[in-house]
Amino acid sequence: MKNRFYIVVISSLVVLACVSCADKYVIEGTTSQYFQDGTVAYIKQFEVGSQNYDFKAIDSCEVLHGKFDMTGALDSVMMVRLYMGTDNFPMVLEPGKVTISIADNIVKIEGTELNERLYAFLTQRDSLKIMYDDLPKRESKMYLDGYTQQEIIQELGAEELRLQNEVDRLETRFVKDNYDNVLGVTWFLRLCYEARDYYGFVTTTPQIDEIYMQAPDSFKKNKLVLTYMSQVNN
Predict the structure, then answer these.
(1) Residues 6+ away with beta carbon under 8 Å from 71
(2) Taking the model in full, what pTM does it have?
(3) Is residue 209 part of a domain?
Protein backbone atom coordinates (compact mmCIF):
# COMPACT_ATOMS: atom_id res chain seq x y z
CA MET A 1 0.00 0.00 0.00
CA LYS A 2 2.60 2.48 -1.15
CA ASN A 3 1.97 6.10 -2.09
CA ARG A 4 -1.19 6.15 -0.05
CA PHE A 5 -3.98 8.54 -0.94
CA TYR A 6 -3.59 10.72 2.10
CA ILE A 7 -0.64 12.98 2.66
CA VAL A 8 1.34 12.49 5.83
CA VAL A 9 0.51 15.21 8.30
CA ILE A 10 3.04 16.16 10.98
CA SER A 11 1.42 15.34 14.33
CA SER A 12 2.15 17.22 17.54
CA LEU A 13 1.07 17.21 21.15
CA VAL A 14 -1.29 20.17 21.18
CA VAL A 15 -3.62 20.52 24.09
CA LEU A 16 -6.35 22.89 22.96
CA ALA A 17 -9.43 21.36 24.52
CA CYS A 18 -9.64 19.73 27.92
CA VAL A 19 -12.25 17.13 28.63
CA SER A 20 -13.15 15.11 31.67
CA CYS A 21 -11.07 12.04 32.42
CA ALA A 22 -14.34 10.14 32.18
CA ASP A 23 -14.52 10.90 28.45
CA LYS A 24 -13.53 8.01 26.24
CA TYR A 25 -12.51 7.37 22.69
CA VAL A 26 -13.75 4.32 20.82
CA ILE A 27 -12.09 3.18 17.60
CA GLU A 28 -13.74 0.57 15.40
CA GLY A 29 -11.82 -0.36 12.28
CA THR A 30 -12.04 -2.70 9.31
CA THR A 31 -9.29 -3.50 6.84
CA SER A 32 -8.81 -5.24 3.52
CA GLN A 33 -6.99 -8.55 3.23
CA TYR A 34 -3.72 -6.61 3.03
CA PHE A 35 -3.49 -6.50 6.81
CA GLN A 36 -3.38 -10.11 7.94
CA ASP A 37 -4.52 -11.40 11.32
CA GLY A 38 -1.94 -10.53 13.93
CA THR A 39 -0.96 -7.21 12.36
CA VAL A 40 -0.68 -4.71 15.21
CA ALA A 41 -2.40 -1.35 14.92
CA TYR A 42 -0.84 1.43 17.00
CA ILE A 43 -2.04 4.87 17.98
CA LYS A 44 1.05 7.04 18.32
CA GLN A 45 1.61 10.61 19.41
CA PHE A 46 4.46 12.99 18.60
CA GLU A 47 6.81 13.37 21.55
CA VAL A 48 7.19 17.04 22.43
CA GLY A 49 10.82 18.11 22.40
CA SER A 50 11.90 15.35 20.04
CA GLN A 51 14.36 16.45 17.38
CA ASN A 52 13.79 13.38 15.22
CA TYR A 53 10.00 13.33 14.91
CA ASP A 54 9.76 10.42 17.35
CA PHE A 55 6.36 9.02 18.18
CA LYS A 56 5.32 7.15 21.30
CA ALA A 57 2.58 4.51 21.31
CA ILE A 58 -0.41 5.32 23.49
CA ASP A 59 -2.66 2.40 22.49
CA SER A 60 -2.54 -0.72 20.32
CA CYS A 61 -4.44 -3.84 19.30
CA GLU A 62 -4.20 -6.75 16.86
CA VAL A 63 -6.16 -7.15 13.67
CA LEU A 64 -8.46 -10.17 13.83
CA HIS A 65 -10.61 -11.28 10.89
CA GLY A 66 -10.09 -7.92 9.24
CA LYS A 67 -11.24 -5.92 12.26
CA PHE A 68 -9.57 -4.01 15.06
CA ASP A 69 -10.82 -1.87 17.93
CA MET A 70 -9.45 0.26 20.74
CA THR A 71 -10.99 2.22 23.58
CA GLY A 72 -9.61 4.28 26.42
CA ALA A 73 -9.98 7.25 28.71
CA LEU A 74 -9.12 10.64 27.26
CA ASP A 75 -8.15 13.77 29.16
CA SER A 76 -7.34 15.96 26.15
CA VAL A 77 -8.04 16.11 22.43
CA MET A 78 -4.89 15.32 20.48
CA MET A 79 -3.56 14.78 16.98
CA VAL A 80 -2.20 11.27 16.53
CA ARG A 81 -1.28 8.79 13.85
CA LEU A 82 -2.64 5.31 13.24
CA TYR A 83 0.22 2.95 12.34
CA MET A 84 -0.45 -0.35 10.62
CA GLY A 85 2.45 -2.23 9.10
CA THR A 86 4.46 0.25 7.04
CA ASP A 87 1.51 2.62 6.62
CA ASN A 88 0.30 5.40 8.85
CA PHE A 89 -2.61 7.81 8.77
CA PRO A 90 -3.42 11.06 10.60
CA MET A 91 -6.41 11.18 12.90
CA VAL A 92 -7.78 13.09 15.88
CA LEU A 93 -8.21 11.31 19.17
CA GLU A 94 -11.30 12.88 20.70
CA PRO A 95 -14.33 11.75 22.72
CA GLY A 96 -16.73 9.58 20.76
CA LYS A 97 -16.63 6.69 18.32
CA VAL A 98 -14.33 6.83 15.32
CA THR A 99 -14.91 4.38 12.47
CA ILE A 100 -11.97 3.51 10.23
CA SER A 101 -12.15 1.73 6.90
CA ILE A 102 -8.98 0.78 5.01
CA ALA A 103 -9.43 -0.91 1.64
CA ASP A 104 -7.17 -0.83 -1.40
CA ASN A 105 -5.93 2.77 -1.65
CA ILE A 106 -8.86 4.36 0.12
CA VAL A 107 -8.84 5.37 3.79
CA LYS A 108 -11.93 6.65 5.57
CA ILE A 109 -11.74 7.95 9.12
CA GLU A 110 -15.02 9.39 10.30
CA GLY A 111 -17.57 9.56 13.07
CA THR A 112 -16.34 12.52 15.14
CA GLU A 113 -16.41 16.19 14.24
CA LEU A 114 -12.70 16.92 13.93
CA ASN A 115 -11.95 13.73 12.00
CA GLU A 116 -14.77 14.59 9.60
CA ARG A 117 -13.24 18.04 9.10
CA LEU A 118 -9.74 16.64 8.66
CA TYR A 119 -10.62 14.08 6.00
CA ALA A 120 -12.91 16.43 4.09
CA PHE A 121 -9.93 18.78 3.87
CA LEU A 122 -7.46 16.03 2.93
CA THR A 123 -9.78 14.79 0.19
CA GLN A 124 -9.93 18.26 -1.37
CA ARG A 125 -6.20 18.77 -1.03
CA ASP A 126 -5.33 15.39 -2.48
CA SER A 127 -7.56 16.06 -5.50
CA LEU A 128 -5.52 19.17 -6.26
CA LYS A 129 -2.25 17.33 -5.64
CA ILE A 130 -3.23 14.60 -8.08
CA MET A 131 -3.79 17.21 -10.80
CA TYR A 132 -0.47 18.83 -9.90
CA ASP A 133 1.40 15.52 -10.08
CA ASP A 134 -0.20 14.82 -13.46
CA LEU A 135 1.47 17.85 -15.08
CA PRO A 136 4.59 15.92 -16.28
CA LYS A 137 2.34 13.47 -18.14
CA ARG A 138 0.53 16.36 -19.77
CA GLU A 139 3.88 17.83 -20.76
CA SER A 140 4.93 14.60 -22.46
CA LYS A 141 1.62 14.39 -24.31
CA MET A 142 1.93 17.98 -25.51
CA TYR A 143 5.38 17.20 -26.91
CA LEU A 144 3.95 14.25 -28.81
CA ASP A 145 1.11 16.41 -30.07
CA GLY A 146 3.55 18.86 -31.59
CA TYR A 147 3.41 21.78 -29.18
CA THR A 148 6.51 23.97 -28.96
CA GLN A 149 8.56 24.30 -25.79
CA GLN A 150 7.33 27.85 -25.32
CA GLU A 151 3.68 26.83 -25.68
CA ILE A 152 4.14 24.04 -23.16
CA ILE A 153 5.85 26.30 -20.63
CA GLN A 154 3.19 28.95 -21.02
CA GLU A 155 0.23 26.60 -20.59
CA LEU A 156 1.55 24.25 -17.94
CA GLY A 157 3.32 27.02 -16.04
CA ALA A 158 0.03 28.85 -15.66
CA GLU A 159 -1.71 25.62 -14.60
CA GLU A 160 1.01 24.82 -12.05
CA LEU A 161 0.68 28.29 -10.51
CA ARG A 162 -3.12 28.03 -10.41
CA LEU A 163 -3.05 24.66 -8.64
CA GLN A 164 -0.42 25.79 -6.14
CA ASN A 165 -2.45 28.90 -5.33
CA GLU A 166 -5.55 26.76 -4.82
CA VAL A 167 -3.67 24.49 -2.42
CA ASP A 168 -2.37 27.52 -0.52
CA ARG A 169 -5.83 29.05 -0.23
CA LEU A 170 -7.32 25.73 0.89
CA GLU A 171 -4.67 25.25 3.57
CA THR A 172 -4.95 28.83 4.78
CA ARG A 173 -8.72 28.60 5.07
CA PHE A 174 -8.44 25.26 6.87
CA VAL A 175 -6.11 26.66 9.53
CA LYS A 176 -8.22 29.79 10.00
CA ASP A 177 -11.42 27.76 10.29
CA ASN A 178 -9.73 25.68 12.99
CA TYR A 179 -7.86 28.31 14.98
CA ASP A 180 -9.60 27.06 18.11
CA ASN A 181 -8.73 23.37 17.91
CA VAL A 182 -5.93 20.88 17.32
CA LEU A 183 -6.36 20.81 13.54
CA GLY A 184 -5.44 24.46 13.06
CA VAL A 185 -2.30 24.31 15.17
CA THR A 186 -1.15 21.01 13.68
CA TRP A 187 -1.46 22.12 10.05
CA PHE A 188 0.07 25.51 10.82
CA LEU A 189 3.10 23.76 12.29
CA ARG A 190 3.27 21.51 9.24
CA LEU A 191 3.56 24.61 7.05
CA CYS A 192 6.24 25.99 9.37
CA TYR A 193 8.29 22.78 9.29
CA GLU A 194 7.99 22.61 5.50
CA ALA A 195 9.36 26.15 5.24
CA ARG A 196 12.18 25.33 7.64
CA ASP A 197 13.15 22.18 5.75
CA TYR A 198 12.96 23.92 2.36
CA TYR A 199 15.10 26.92 3.31
CA GLY A 200 17.37 25.13 5.77
CA PHE A 201 16.61 27.41 8.71
CA VAL A 202 13.66 28.51 10.82
CA THR A 203 11.65 31.01 8.81
CA THR A 204 8.17 31.92 7.61
CA THR A 205 6.43 32.46 4.30
CA PRO A 206 3.76 34.98 3.24
CA GLN A 207 1.18 32.24 3.83
CA ILE A 208 2.44 31.56 7.36
CA ASP A 209 2.60 35.29 8.13
CA GLU A 210 -1.00 35.81 6.99
CA ILE A 211 -2.28 32.95 9.13
CA TYR A 212 -0.31 34.05 12.19
CA MET A 213 -1.14 37.76 11.98
CA GLN A 214 -4.89 37.05 11.84
CA ALA A 215 -4.83 34.37 14.55
CA PRO A 216 -6.40 34.93 17.98
CA ASP A 217 -4.16 35.23 21.03
CA SER A 218 -5.11 31.74 22.18
CA PHE A 219 -3.58 30.34 18.97
CA LYS A 220 -0.43 32.47 19.20
CA LYS A 221 0.11 31.44 22.83
CA ASN A 222 0.06 27.73 22.04
CA LYS A 223 3.37 26.36 23.29
CA LEU A 224 4.58 24.93 19.98
CA VAL A 225 3.43 27.91 17.92
CA LEU A 226 5.06 30.30 20.37
CA THR A 227 8.30 28.32 20.32
CA TYR A 228 8.56 28.30 16.52
CA MET A 229 7.66 31.94 16.03
CA SER A 230 10.08 32.98 18.80
CA GLN A 231 12.88 31.20 16.95
CA VAL A 232 11.92 33.10 13.79
CA ASN A 233 12.10 36.43 15.58
CA ASN A 234 15.45 35.56 17.11
Answers:
(1) 24, 25, 26, 27
(2) 0.80
(3) yes
